[in-house]
Write a structure and sequence with these properties.
This protein has 22 helices and 19 strands. With 577 residues, it is an alpha+beta fold.
Length: 577
Amino acid sequence: MKIRTIQAQYPKRRWLILSLFLCGMVVLSSRAIYLQLLNNDFLKDHGDARSIRVVEIPAHRGVITDRNGEQLAMSTPVDSIWVTPRKVFENVELLPDLAEVMGMTVTDLHDVLRDRMSREFVYLKRHANPDLVKKVKQLGMKGVSTEREYKRYYPAAEVTSHFIGFTNIDDKGQEGLELAYDNWLTGKPGKKRVLKDRLNRVVQNIESIEPSVPGKQLELSIDRRVQYLAYRELAAAVKYHRAKGGSLVMLDIRTGEIMAMVGQPSYNPNNRKGLKSQYFRNRAVTDVFEPGSTMKPFTIAAGLESGNYKPHSSINTSPGYYKVGEYTVRDMRNYGKIDVSTVITKSSNVGASKIALSLEPEQYWDALSRFGFGQSTGSGFPGESSGSLNPYNTWSEIEMATLSFGYGLSVTPLQLAHAYSVLATGGVMLPVSFIKVKGSVSGKRVMPENITRQVRKMLETVVSASGTGKRAAIKGYRVIGKTGTVHKSIRGGYSDDRYLSIFAGIAPASEPRFAMVVLIDEPNGDDHYGGVVAAPVFSRVMEGTFRILNIPPDDLPAFTSPIMAHRQKPEQLQGFD
């Protein structure tokens, strides 16, 4: 009754209110129809802006292999954990759980995020292990995400570390061939459009915008089997002689390829935590030393080339020392009157000095420089040293004398091996290559072939029973080489009890295939001579290489079968059992 009275009293107000509600419904419906059907791009764009992203598709770095295709460096997919600090603090109650999973205290994690609050992207852990990534994902915490990256792995670890080098956490080359060929190995990342949920997780791949391009493969010159053999023998020698370190370089003289290059001490590129940078450098390429008596073959070559000497030319080394101005050059003992070949065999400093001093300085310098001394090999290895060879117009008589037996200039192990390869090739210098050579190689003639052949014949006597390098001998093979024992230079002169033990050689002698230099730095104990410390390493590594590569012997003893022996005369059978 009362309601009817009110309706009767205010009919206009009633229709006004109903009209307002109806107009509101019409306006809202029209707006909904407009946005959903006629102009839906607006809402779609705003929705996409909150959930659709363009992300990068990582490209893996190129694989590095040895000459036989064995992998020496590869990139494996891993996840990294990152956060948006502002969003993490929206779920601050889960912060203790995240800190526990990450192995951090709540305070440390809080401080890390608070100091970077303005950032949208902060790494918590790069290259995390799969178990950690799984635990983080299980938290389901807003603002915490993972990103796919690639981590470099080196299967041979210490064996190839100085040669190959390593990359940083961003997969960029930092040392060795990883640095030298970084542009070649680095891939090009791609792009794709994805749909993400509120936790920033990818729930759908929408489209590929640009495909990723992986890095190119790099095929190295080394043989992994020979590299391992060289590493094992060098490490054993350094340990046995309690030496400071060592280097070994082996070149294939037919192509200029490096078959093995190792150094001690080494390091594991897969785990560099706590290592000092001094372990990273490749000593065979970067460190210089005075080569000592391993220089004598090049002095002899210069003397032979001058025409003043023949292999059997006589040189008087009596009484075992030679006065050069106010200085004295000494031999181990008085060898008397010897020929040029014996200068090499007995490693006579006096004989080498007399040959050098009989030459014109420019003539001598020219011969040494043609062998590559005082200049880089051009290998392209990062940090390669060129050594030093002073200009001839600055030489004094004593400097020429000491140069003849390897003091007063500096070389790297690679440089010295390269010079010996010139003797092996018959006077042709080939470019050094860390990369596998495909096809023929052309070189530059730097010394007459007959000169190098004569020097090789002299060097073969060094590895004979009467030579200083007899421990470099290999059963069944002819070996040529030269020993060197060098006093290390110190401030104010040379040390009396710190040495470099060196052996440089070529084998097989009949058809040279490899040139090798072995250097042991500061061996301790009674033995420090190159023929005792370094020569056995040469022998073991070279012999193992011949076995691995099936290189036939060139010094087998004559053998007569029993059947053929029965056909010989009775007097020829004496001693046959």
